[in-house]
Amino acid sequence: MAAPTTAAARVFGSGIRRREDPRLLTGTSRYTADITLPGQLYAAILRSPHGHARIRKINAAAAKSAPGVVEVFTGADTDGVLQMIPCAWLVPNSDLKVGPFRAMATDVVRYVGDAVAVVVADTVEQAYDAVDLIQVDYAPLPAVVDPERASKPGAPQLHTDVPNNVAFHWTVAGGDVDAAFKNAEVIVRDRIVQQRLIPTAMETRGALAQYTPATGELTLWNTTQNPHIVRFIMSGVTGIPEDRLRVIAPEVGGGFGSKIPQIQGDFITVFCSMKLGRPVKWIESRTENYQSTTHGRDHVQDVELAATKDGRILGLRCTVWAGMGAYLSTAAPGIPTILHGLMLSGPYNIAAVKEDVYGVYTNTTPVEAYRGAGRPEATFMLERLVNKLSDEIGVDPVEVRRRNLIPPFDNGHDVVTGLKYDSGNYQGALDKLLAHAGYDALRKEQAAAREQGRYIGIGVSLYVEICGLGPSQVAGAVGFQGGLWESAIIRFHPSGKAHVFIGSSPHGQGEETTFAQIVADELGVSVNDVKVVHGDTDSTPMGWGTYGSRTTAVSGAALAMATRKIKEKARLLTSHLLEAAVEDIDYANGKFFVKGFPDRHKTIQDIALMANVAWNMPDGMEAGLEATSFYDPPNFVFPFGAHLAVVEVDPSTGHVTLTRYVAVDDCGPQINPMIVEGQVHGGVVQGIGQALWEHGIYDDSGQLLTGSLNDYAIPRADVLPEIEVLHTVTPSPHHPLGVKGVGEAGTIASTCTVYNAVLDALEPFKVTSIRMPLTPERVWRAIAGREGA
Asked: Which has the closest alpha carbon to 47: 126, 115, 140?
């Protein structure tokens, strides 16, 4: 006899609308800046106008006597109260040197935006007015902003105990690289500059601290991607025990990596509240955000690839100078090393790789993860050289890729850097891309356009990314100073409604919707009967953060495991209530029934009621219907895909028009295709931004020349085509739901895809390299054969 059925379609895989959107679109969400407490004060931070200078003297007398000012603090006031801001990724075997990072500088400022003093006043306007009254006597010092130049003898030194500004030197190697290059028939080379980027989240950073001297308790509202880690780090820096420290992440308006680290303003705000015993709020201006939060990328890459004449890749080797900024931010050392270096072989069979990475201090804002974090840099390097190999041997770039792809696999593949990919069908993704885009027809259209004097370019890139960051054992081995597991709690009320408590803290990715879909699908409740709670360390279980496309891959797995514990208890209770053997109880569509007798059943709502009232429970069974799960993944997950871009370049102006973009991504089974599509759209646009417009520029003295949205160009909707999003589905064999991450996928592939398209358009002009971003001036100069491209 068939199992019970329901008219409801399966909610896993359904593109239901995001439940977050109504409050976001109607302006009823509450961000950190929206929260006001009784007796609240406001902080404004004085920041260094110099890229590098010694502080001779600070005179705050005028500021202290200004209207509304409660107090002015300098770095000297934090001595004995705040410890140094820690770096949380101490890469092993790298001779890591962590320069001292204080909440406020006391003797030397090392970048424009370095905090020097703070004013606390009754109103935010009074605080900012008083900041202008603080007089600081600076002795300017030589500055250095280029990471390669900073590592050379004679460069200005940022930290006295860090020779040549080299914070670390790390090497990854696999296979016989020397033999690969000795036996190569073709060697192609390139120097790639991954320019500095500024994340530009919609919401700037901010904090509201409420310290209660009588109890020694602190509540901190914070714009963060990981409230539990904020509590962990804040406790270490301030000395406030974790059990007396509550961190709340209310609505968070985007992060892109910039809200992973703890920054100076967070600690300054807490310090002010500790000293004054009153709530203190600090919210960044956009200028502060650009100057002093975090930046991304900033790599100089010298890379070469060895191959045969028929396009078989033999080996890859490279040297990377990675700009760290003035100090090591929370996860910064892991980005150009672990997240970049281990992905050097991408989707290809490459037998030998070697990379040397130098992490270098410069007089610039500290870098941190920026969407993709290391993987876009690795993908660009590899995909750019595959195109150079194609040009060198005269074989179509798609064909060169085909000849080197790893064959399909569904349960593990070892690559030369030491990773084991979980599953992949790279050829399948490429085939789907080419068929949908009409690749052969595009090439014919390109040839016809050139005869008319129009220059169309077609770019293709493939990628594999490492995400779902874990396992914790691996995290420890690579120097991450924490775990990478996640936990989840499911609690059913007597009515059959469920509360889900997660340790991860989404900030725009839609997990309030998708996590409700997981529970609804696994347990047969309405998705509207599942409430997802996150962002408050007092009410949610421990979690290690939302970054690296790990929220669904790790936290979602913990939630799935918890649903299965609920299901097992429900099966036992059904067995008791229906007086049937446990092994005879089946489950389908939210109903537990006796095999062969679907009318003899209990719904999950029936079970929730009985478990909570506990009138008729089996001997030894605890009351309540609740489950907790801790999930530490056995391996990373490895999403992949293939992207294609079409551009047209006007040779008289250098203007690039992006006319088409197609993305094929594989993140395993999709919980909500609409949300997946939105994540791909956002990621693709950010990657295009790097290729064509975005660039955080410093002058030689360390002045940020792109310190506002007037100067820093970001993509606009009117210059973008419709992004065509397609998928293949290759489940991860070790994940309980088979899913992989997707939040960063678009960024990883799109930068090089667009870059390759532009260089393809310029092939008649013999242009082989242009520094990003590909502004009209740079493209025009390259076409004209002029310097500066």
From this structure: 115
Q: Are residues 691 and 777 in the same domain?
A: yes
Position 788 confidence tier, pLDDT thresholds 50, 70, 90 = low
Dihedral, CA atoms, 196, 198, 199, 201, nearest 10 degrees? -170
- Which strands form 53-59's sheet, in the order they lie side by side? 108-109, 53-59, 135-140
227 lies in the same domain as 100: yes
Q: How far is CA 636 from the centre of its chain?
A: 15
C-alpha triplet 774, 780, 783: angle, nearest 5°: 105
Residue 698 dihedral angles phi and psi, to the nearest 5°: -110, 145
Q: What is the pLDDT of residues 709-753, one digit of tens each?
A: 999 999 999 999 999 999 999 999 999 999 999 999 999 999 999
Q: How far apart are CA 599 and CA 596, in angstroms?
A: 9
In a domain, 21, yes or no: no
Per-residue model confidence as pLDDT tens digits over 264-297: 999 999 999 999 999 999 999 999 999 999 999 9
Is 728 among the domain residues? yes
Residues 78 and 127 in one domain: yes
Considering 631, 658, 687, which residue would you say is the last residue of a domain?
A: 631
Return d(Cα 135, Cα 660) in angstroms, integer: 54
Mean pLDDT of the chain: 96
User: How much is the pLDDT for 308?
Assistant: 98
Residue 174 domain flag:
no
**318 CB contacts (<8 Å, ≥6 apart)?**
301, 302, 303, 304, 344, 354, 355, 356, 381
pTM, full prediction:
0.96
Separation between Cα atoms, residue 511 and residue 346, nearest integer Å: 28
Maximum C-alpha span of the chain? 86
Question: Domain span at residue 448?
Answer: 373-468+636-784
- Tell me the residue ranges of DSSP E strands in 387-454: 413-414, 420-421
Residue 97 lies inside a defined structural domain of this protein: yes
